């Protein structure tokens, strides 16, 4: 019988070196790259993933010079003394039998600082700084900086470099006419526009010798109007191969593209077809990427011949042991990345150290460790939502005796509602992970069990953790009580958990995360584009660059299943509190489904016709929104009735997750708080 994942785990011969498998840990900016003092932390982060079996890892981006910074004082490798600092990282990885390449990232006009440079002085939509247009001598200096950075990477002990040629950064900017309108040897026809990457790679190869990995990340799909045609991409791929690259990695979409490329609502493996096209063009190994988060999918892509290697990035934040678990046929135990971006990319944009919603240890390996306990305790955890699941399994893993109670008949708490939202199917994976973890860690699970002060005190527990979550906030509006009785006014729990029927016109009270999710749920009527790639491509206007430049066409969203009104009392654009990297996707998606938003409203009354609203302090411009149903999504209150009686009885009680604080609660906080408490007990 063939072993599981035989393609994924097959070695990859690059000539001078053989990688132990086809898994590439893709580049991620963690925030630890930017300060030398954080290099020991970065070293442990990479070493843990090397021990986890990854074939080749790529660091977050390092600029080759100041002009290439992503932001002021971002990580840069431009001197021998800086190269020495990297030794702690490369040595740790090599001791762990791993291999690592440094990503050279020149931001060009995406640089968020006044020293940015590009082909022309054309500001990007995502930075307030207009770049300086480079002279021909200036272009030459950038090429030299790339080459020097590769030499320094070798000096620092790296096994190779990745040249970032996609995502709309410096190199990519030279390839397209909307940024590159030069008339010298670096602009004009495509042969001139592609001269920059080809020169960089060929001079780099000459400088570093044959026995050093050069990965080139090519933009296989720009996803911007005026992006490259397939003919151009093909020509570049051949040029890069000839110039001496060892591996061609795939890049998808510029940062300014209006198409989501890695969010959870993007179908899994949505862009493997781009790599498949590249593979037909070159003979060097090609690597595929974007929304691949399970060994099954990675294996399937390799087995079908679409790629030679699979890059996964965030899945290694979620689980450092991904490869080892797959190799041991324990894939069911992998803590799967749900592509939420909440603790990784959203942190990066806020200049916070990245981590992972499902694995708070990510990038905190030197500080958060689940060490075996020296004093075994008997612990009760009440509530099997994210907070309780994390606390119970970490405590049991550490050797404590743990009872986990939930009144419901399944684990997961609110995740059982989240997983029903079209585009949030990945939440099923977290529940699968915890189900296995409960079994492997020895947690005693008691479902359909309402814990009471009496039952808990009778258990003689050393510690009681209340992870009882939240209850939906009740709102007071004239007429609401009567209409709740008729079933016209519902809570989000009635719709998502109790599956109450909802009519064709619906008003939502509250435009927070759950209001937005509810709108998605109602307009899609159960059919999720995330599970239907051709439909998703149509909805977002993604196509083959062979048909349309840049791979974009006019989006053709299908008709919404319902007419939805999303209301909030605050003025301003709804959805402001949503994640930095995902909020725009939710807003665009609801706009495409013609969801009508109203901000700055007062809720005047509710009756059998619908909801009457007015605007502003003067309560002007009354508007009756006639609807079949009104769904209340107005936030939550903590549920912690058990706390006081237990404290009164002298028990040691801890509150975690929503039971502790409902305001701005999310699963990231719940899992982090549960895990950290359990690590201390
Ligand atoms: P809960 O998940 O509320 O779990 C509490 C558990 O306690 C429940 O299972 C309940 O049955 C049990 N319980 C209560 N009292 C007792 C008792 N006396 N005895 C036994 N059991 C009891 N968060 C994100 O971070 N990202 C998202 O994208 C996201 N999307 C969401 C979408 C929807 C539609 C919803 C509803 C929520 C979403 N959330 C999201 C929020 C996230 O699910 C919550 O923040 C998280 O579930 C809170 O975890 P918790 O463990 O504190 O509580
Ligand atoms: P929320 O984000 O706090 O939003 C609550 C909404 O209700 C707001 O729009 C608020 O706006 C309104 N509201 C509050 N009190 C009200 C009242 N008394 N009467 C009428 N309206 C009221 O809460 P949520 O949407 O329930 O989400 C809960 C948590 O789950 C959030 O903190 C969020 O982080 C998390 N979540 C995250 C995601 C995600 O994608 N990351 C998705 C879903 C949920 P006004 O006060 O302006 O009316
Ligand atoms: Fe994946 Fe979310 Fe973790 Fe980021 S925070 S690695 S997207 S699960």
Explain what this protein looks like in three dimensions.
With 681 residues, this protein is α/β, with parallel strands linked by helices. Helices cover 32% and strands 17% of the residues. Strands 3-4-5-8-9-10-11-12 form an eight-stranded parallel beta barrel, surrounded by seven helices. Helix 7 (195-208) packs parallel to helix 8 (230-243) and helix 20 (513-524) packs parallel to helix 22 (583-592). The chain is globular and about 75 Å long. The two termini are 45 Å apart. The model has no long low-confidence stretch (mean pLDDT 97). Residues 342, 473, 475, 509-515, 517, 568-570, 577, 579, 633-636, 664-666 line the site of NADP nicotinamide-adenine-dinucleotide phosphate (NAP).
The total count of helices amounts to: 24
- The residue ranges in which pLDDT falls below 50 over 5 or more consecutive positions are none
Q: Whole-number average pLDDT?
A: 97
The geometry reads as globular
Q: Per DSSP, what share of the residues sits in E-state strands of 2 or more residues? A: 15-25%
Please list the strands of the largest sheet in the order they lie side by side. 3-4-5-8-9-10-11-12
Q: What small molecules does the structure contain?
A: flavin-adenine dinucleotide, NADP nicotinamide-adenine-dinucleotide phosphate, iron/sulfur cluster
Major sheet description: 8 strands, parallel, barrel
C-alpha termini separation: 45 Å
- Radius of gyration, in angstroms, nearest whole number: 27 Å
Number of strands: 27
Helix coverage percent: 25-40%
SSE class: alpha/beta
């Amino acid at each position: 019988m063939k072993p599981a994942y035989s393609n994924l785990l097959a070695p990859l011969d690059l000539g001078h070196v053989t990688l132990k498998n086809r898994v590439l840990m893709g580049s991620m900016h963690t925030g630890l790259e930017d300060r030398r003092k954080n290099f020991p932390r970065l070293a442990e982060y990479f070493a843990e993933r090397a021990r986890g079996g990854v074939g080749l890892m790529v660091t977050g981006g390092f600029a080759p010079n100041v002009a290439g910074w992503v932001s002021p004082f971002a990580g840069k490798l431009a001197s021998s003394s800086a190269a020495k600092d990297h030794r702690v990282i490369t040595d740790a990885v090599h001791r762990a039998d791993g291999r690592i390449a440094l990503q050279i990232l020149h931001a060009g006009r995406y640089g968020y600082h006044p020293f940015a440079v590009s082909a022309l002085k054309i500001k990007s939509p995502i930075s307030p700084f207009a770049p300086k247009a480079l002279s021909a001598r200036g272009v030459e200096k950038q090429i030299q900086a790339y080459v020097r950075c590769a030499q320094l990477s070798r000096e620092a002990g790296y096994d190779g470099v990745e040249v970032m040629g996609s995502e709309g950064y410096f190199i990519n900017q030279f390839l397209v006419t909307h940024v590159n309108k030069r008339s010298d040897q670096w602009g004009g026809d495509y042969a001139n526009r592609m001269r920059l990457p080809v020169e960089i790679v060929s001079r780099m190869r000459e400088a570093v010798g044959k026995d050093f990995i050069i990965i080139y990340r090519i933009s296989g799909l720009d996803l911007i109007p005026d992006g490259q045609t397939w003919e151009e991409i093909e020509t570049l791929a051949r040029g890069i191969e000839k110039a001496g690259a060892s591996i061609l990695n795939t890049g998808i979409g510029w940062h300014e593209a209006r198409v989501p490329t890695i969010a959870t609502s993007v179908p899994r493996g949505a862009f493997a077809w781009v790599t498949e096209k590249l593979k037909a063009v070159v003979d060097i190994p090609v690597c595929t990427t974007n929304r691949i988060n399970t060994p099954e999918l990675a294996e399937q892509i390799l087995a079908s011949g679409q790629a030679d290697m699979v890059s996964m990035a965030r899945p290694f934040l979620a689980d450092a042991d991904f490869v080892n678990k797959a190799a041991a046929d324990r894939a069911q135990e992998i803590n799967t990345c749900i592509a939420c971006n909440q603790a990784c990319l959203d942190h990066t944009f806020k200049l916070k150290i990245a981590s992972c919603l499902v694995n708070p240890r990510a990038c905190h390996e030197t500080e958060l460790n689940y060490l075996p306990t020296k004093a075994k305790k008997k612990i009760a955890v009440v509530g099997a939502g994210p907070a309780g699941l994390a606390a119970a399994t970490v405590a049991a893993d550490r050797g404590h005796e743990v009872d986990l109670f939930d009144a419901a008949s399944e684990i997961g708490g609110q995740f059982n509602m989240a997983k029903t939202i079209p585009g949030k199917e990945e939440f099923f994976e977290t529940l699968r992970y915890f189900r296995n973890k409960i079994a492997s860690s020895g947690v005693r699970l008691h479902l359909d069990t309402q814990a009471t002060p009496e039952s808990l005190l009778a258990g003689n527990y050393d510690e009681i953790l209340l992870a009882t979550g939240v209850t939906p906030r009740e709102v007071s509006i004239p007429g609401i009580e009567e209409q709740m009785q008729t079933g016209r006014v519902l809570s989000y729990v009635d719709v998502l958990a109790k599956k109450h029927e909802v009519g064709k016109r619906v008003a939502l009270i509250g435009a927070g995360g759950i209001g937005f999710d509810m709108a998605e749920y109602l307009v899609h009527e159960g059919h999720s584009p995330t599970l239907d790639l051709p439909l998703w491509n149509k909805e977002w206007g993604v196509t083959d660059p062979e048909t349309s430049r840049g791979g974009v066409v006019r989006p053709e969203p299908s008709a919404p299943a319902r007419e939805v009104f999303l209301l909030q009392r605050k003025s301003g654009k709804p959805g402001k509190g949503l994640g930095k990297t995902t909020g725009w996707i939710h807003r665009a998606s609801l706009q495409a489904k013609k969801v009508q938003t109203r901000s700055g409203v007062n809720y005047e009354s509710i009756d059998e016709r619908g909801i009457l609203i007015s605007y502003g302090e003067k309560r002007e411009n009354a508007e009756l929104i006639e609807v079949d149903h009104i769904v209340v999504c107005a936030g939550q209150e903590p549920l912690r009735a058990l706390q006081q009686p237990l404290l009164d009885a002298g028990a040691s009680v801890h509150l975690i997750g929503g039971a502790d604080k409902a305001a701005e609660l999310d699963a990231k906080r719940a899992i982090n708080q549960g895990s950290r408490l359990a690590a201390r007990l």
